[in-house]
Amino acid sequence: AIILHTNAGLWGYNIGDTVQFTSLHPYKIVVSGRIKHFISAFGEHVIGKEVESALLEASTGRELSMIEFTVAPQVTPTEGLPFHEWLVEFEEPPAGLTELETAIDEAMTRQNIYYRDLIDGKILQPLKITPLPKGTFRAYMKTQGKLGGQNKVPRLANDRKIADQLLALARK
After folding, report:
1. From CA 122, how far away is CA 115, in angstroms rounded?
2. What is the mean pLDDT of residues 137-155?
């Protein structure tokens, strides 16, 4: 995380970004996410970079066009174990949604040992994708007063607030 502070250290401000060093000599960094965008409802410590990498890996070689997505934990499902719910607005829903879920889940388990342990230990079931109708994310951002190019939907949330609002909008 980046903390800006004065020379004397009397004042500091957490700007909310996480960074990854790509080089130490010379120092080079890339912004890798936001500190408040994570999922750890079960101790899995999933971060935005892992989610985006898993999605990129799983979509390689597939006809896949997504408009927007977000991920939230489903702690109390109506049946079965808890899981991560991926709410995705597709340009065109893919034919093999189950295969896409499996590919993303496999990519996630390769990247995050905590997530893999929870899947292997039958604490979590593999992720599930919930396709949303076109325009759902736009409608959500409008209800938040954040419609426009400078605002982004959080990719991850450790609660169901955004997910539940998206699902309510999708039912309308």
Report:
1. 11
2. 89
